[in-house]
Amino acid sequence: MPTWSKMKRFYEHAGVMEQDSSFLVVLDGRVVKTPAGSNLGSPTMALTKAMSEEWETQSLEVKPETMSLCKLAATAIDRLNKKRDEVIGITLKIAETDLLCYRVSEPEDLVALQNRGWNPELEWAMDELDVILKVTVGLIPVNQPEKSLLNLRNKLMSLTDFQLMGVTNAASVAGSLILALSMFYGRIDAQVMFEKSILEEKYQVERWGKDNEAMLKQEVLREDIKNSSRFLNLLSA
Fold first, then answer.
1. Looking at residue 1, what is its pLDDT?
2. For residue 48, how far is the Cα from the chain centroid?
3. Are 100 and 66 contained in the same domain?
4. Cis omega before residue 107 (within 30°)?
5. Whether residues 59 and 91 fall in one domain
6. Could you list the residue range(s) of the whole structural domain that residue 54 is in?
């Protein structure tokens, strides 16, 4: 994901400027540029205002890693504009090995937990997206039906660049395109997506206790999913 380098804060105020039915982030009246040199903005006032607030809240040093919305928008502008088909292909690869399709065979309570948490999402995908994905056990690979992958491709192709960015980011961090689409279409929210993404990890914590490194990774995942959800919600605000 492209980003800006750390820099000293060189501006007084961040704001929004409307131009040609889109909205741009401005610093002291000057349009912010993406890492590739394009204008930084979005299709909606709500998202662009939130992006400008990420710049406004920076202190003496601008820290790009704290500006998740701007990074997602910049990636949509710089990458999807030129490599949309490539990004769709990468996102479809996630569906081919979707988290929801790889189950454990034991213990029984974890099997039941995965069934309760994941089966409803696969059933939703079948009913609403006309996507049927096969389930396997362990690491045994499974080839997903071509028709289902084609239907998923068509769904992704119907999204705008910004929508695709939000869905792709959520899918990649969670390892599940089905969960990402379920969140995009409003079936589940960011917290539910996060919880469904860590069913096995949460089970292991309850059984064996916390692992600090694993817990830190989960917090990063929670933030990534939350940021993707906020990005998508602001697009429709």
1. 58
2. 18
3. no
4. yes
5. no
6. 7-72
Supply 105's token pair: 């065979």
Q: How many domains is the chain built from?
A: 2
Q: How many CB atoms lie within 10 A of CB 54?
A: 19
**Cβ-defined contacts of 35-40 (< 8 Å, 24+):** 35/2, 35/3, 35/4, 35/74, 35/78, 36/2, 36/74, 36/77, 36/78, 38/77, 38/78, 38/81, 39/77, 40/70, 40/73, 40/74, 40/77
pTM (predicted TM-score): 0.95
Tell me the pLDDT tens digit for each residue of 101-139: 999 999 999 999 999 999 999 999 999 999 999 999 988
Q: What dihedral do alpha carbons 118, 101, 123, 132 form, nearest 10°?
A: 170
Mark which of 72, 94, 114 sits at the end of a domain.
72
Angle at 176 between CA 72 and CA 169, to 5 degrees: 5
In the predicted model, what is the mean pLDDT of residues 93-108? 97
